[in-house]
Amino acid sequence: MLTPQVVPLLTDQVLIAIIAVAVILIGASAGLVVSRRRKAQELPPPAPTPRIEPAEPQVGDDAEEPRDTPTRTLEDTELPTVERPESAQGRLVRLRARLARSQGSLGKGLLALLSSDKIDEETWDDIESTLITADVGVGPTQELVERLRTRVRVEGIANAEEARSVLRSELVALVDPTLDRSLKTSRTDTKPAIVLVVGVNGTGKTTTVGKLARVLVAEDKQVVLGAADTFRAAAADQLQTWGERVGVRTVRGPEGGDPASIAFDAVKAGIEAGVDVVLVDTAGRLHTKTGLMDELGKVKRVIEKSAEVDEVLLVIDATTGQNGLTQARVFAEVINVTGIVLTKLDGTAKGGIVIAVQRELGVPVKLVGLGEGADDLAPFDAEQFVDALLD
């Protein structure tokens, strides 16, 4: 039983306890608030909400990320342009006109001598000198002069027209229109025709391959080019550019690669694609380097593991004269040359190289280059050539 003295004491203790609890609660609340404020200050501010731009329409569903650059349209995309080469007839017309301009001095000189009032030994010496200067060669020149002597002695020449007729017939016979100048570029039942193009540097060999591809495309033939000239910088690029202009594929390899392997791959690609012709460009080999010439024979042997080589065209610069004949002789010893391509024929008045090189190799001139234009390669025609000399 609590006495009256104890009751006031208990009441004071309870009050003190209540006050203490209240103080603790208030302190705890204040600490919690301070803690929350400190944490709020320590946390980084929230990232702003990104603004989403509408995505550019694309093929497919729900393209999530817009493109930073505009797409290319058909109007600003460069598409390759495939050219249609000039017809063979058009090239032949220009052949005669350009030959007449470049070779006219030879024909006019011969006609003037034969039409003179008196043809004596001095006249014949001048005729012989004119022919030799024009690179006809000593043997063919002596043969032509002897035949002209006989005809003048037997038939006589009364005027310039008769002189032209006699000279024309003898020159045509010397150029020999009976030689087969056709190119073997027709596909067999199972394989394309294989054309190997050879020659020294500077003759226009790679350019000739490109121009020949244009000639064949103009005849509606399908062509594959083989860039087997791996030693000359940018030779493969040059050939590929020619091919792209007429829509022709070029098979190439690394610079300095094995020419025989690339030639083999080109032929293989042509067989698989079912094309009509495979044109193989080879390195411009100097005729004094025996090792390189032997390698040319290797290229031909490797190709013939897949298909027979139908044509070996030797490209000769018509302006080189007797040096061109030396080149021709060495190439003929290494590989079976089937035809001659004379380039830069319009750049020299020495058209007699046609006669000399045919006599040297016993093979015909099949193509002539008459300028720098893309379609300035034309088939050679004996009668048109002589007529151009005399016009």
From TrEMBL:
<protein>
    <recommendedName>
        <fullName>Signal recognition particle receptor FtsY</fullName>
        <ecNumber>3.6.5.4</ecNumber>
    </recommendedName>
</protein>
<keyword id="KW-0472">Membrane</keyword>
<feature type="compositionally biased region" description="Basic and acidic residues">
    <location>
        <begin position="66"/>
        <end position="86"/>
    </location>
</feature>
<feature type="binding site">
    <location>
        <begin position="199"/>
        <end position="206"/>
    </location>
    <ligand>
        <name>GTP</name>
    </ligand>
</feature>
<keyword id="KW-1003">Cell membrane</keyword>
<dbReference type="InterPro" id="IPR013822">
    <property type="entry name" value="Signal_recog_particl_SRP54_hlx"/>
</dbReference>
<dbReference type="Pfam" id="PF00448">
    <property type="entry name" value="SRP54"/>
</dbReference>
<feature type="binding site">
    <location>
        <begin position="281"/>
        <end position="285"/>
    </location>
    <ligand>
        <name>GTP</name>
    </ligand>
</feature>
<dbReference type="InterPro" id="IPR003593">
    <property type="entry name" value="AAA+_ATPase"/>
</dbReference>
<dbReference type="InterPro" id="IPR036225">
    <property type="entry name" value="SRP/SRP_N"/>
</dbReference>
<keyword id="KW-1133">Transmembrane helix</keyword>
<dbReference type="Pfam" id="PF02881">
    <property type="entry name" value="SRP54_N"/>
</dbReference>
<dbReference type="InterPro" id="IPR000897">
    <property type="entry name" value="SRP54_GTPase_dom"/>
</dbReference>
<dbReference type="InterPro" id="IPR004390">
    <property type="entry name" value="SR_rcpt_FtsY"/>
</dbReference>
<comment type="similarity">
    <text>Belongs to the GTP-binding SRP family. FtsY subfamily.</text>
</comment>
<keyword id="KW-0342">GTP-binding</keyword>
<keyword id="KW-0963">Cytoplasm</keyword>
<feature type="binding site">
    <location>
        <begin position="343"/>
        <end position="346"/>
    </location>
    <ligand>
        <name>GTP</name>
    </ligand>
</feature>
<keyword id="KW-0812">Transmembrane</keyword>
<keyword id="KW-0675">Receptor</keyword>
<keyword id="KW-0547">Nucleotide-binding</keyword>
<feature type="region of interest" description="Disordered">
    <location>
        <begin position="41"/>
        <end position="87"/>
    </location>
</feature>
<dbReference type="InterPro" id="IPR042101">
    <property type="entry name" value="SRP54_N_sf"/>
</dbReference>
<feature type="transmembrane region" description="Helical">
    <location>
        <begin position="14"/>
        <end position="34"/>
    </location>
</feature>
<keyword id="KW-0378">Hydrolase</keyword>
<feature type="domain" description="SRP54-type proteins GTP-binding">
    <location>
        <begin position="364"/>
        <end position="377"/>
    </location>
</feature>
<comment type="subunit">
    <text>Part of the signal recognition particle protein translocation system, which is composed of SRP and FtsY.</text>
</comment>
<dbReference type="InterPro" id="IPR027417">
    <property type="entry name" value="P-loop_NTPase"/>
</dbReference>
<comment type="function">
    <text>Involved in targeting and insertion of nascent membrane proteins into the cytoplasmic membrane. Acts as a receptor for the complex formed by the signal recognition particle (SRP) and the ribosome-nascent chain (RNC).</text>
</comment>
